[in-house]
Amino acid sequence: MTTPTAPTIETASGVIGAAGALMAALSAHADLPAPRVTSERVVAPERDSSGGLVLTWGLAFGFHRDTALSDFEQWRQALGADPAAVDHGSTGPHAWLSVDTAYAGVPLTLTGYYTLAQDDPGEDE
Asked: Taking phi first (over 0 means left), then psi (-120 to 50 degrees means alpha), and beta for anything else, what does residue 92 get?
């Protein structure tokens, strides 16, 4: 008889919490736009007993295409993420909005990707 071990980030059992949160979020908000979903190890907000970093499995919902910002905002509202916590970033013509939140105790990052409007070269003439 084998003794069950506690889930760790090193085994598939460690992903169960993130998978459960994913199923719960998608089930609770089934009418919202479908996100691109990834799961990855992230640094948890808590620290271990010696003050060290704790890794856990988290989720990321990404939104692309022309509706990315609308899709991002619908999910941000549905998950109750603080609008003041939304970060904006850009590099060249590419930009994104991102916010970190949690769902069912699992860290979740929402990101909406979009292209910045290009200046019309004829406007400066």
From this structure: left
Q: Is there a contact between 60 and 37 (Cβ–Cβ < 8 Å)?
A: yes
CB distance 83 to 76 below 8 Å: yes
Tally Cβ neighbours within 10 Å of residue 4: 6
pLDDT over threshold 50, residue 20? yes
How many H-runs (helices) and E-runs (strands) does the chain carry? 2, 5
Express as a percent the part of the chain with pLDDT over 70.
89
Q: Which of 24, 33, 38, 120 is nearest to 69 (CA)?
A: 33
Q: How far apart are CA 42 and CA 15, in angstroms?
A: 12
Q: Length of the chain, please? A: 125
pTM as predicted: 0.83
Cα-Cα-Cα-Cα dihedral sign, residues 84, 86, 112, 95: positive
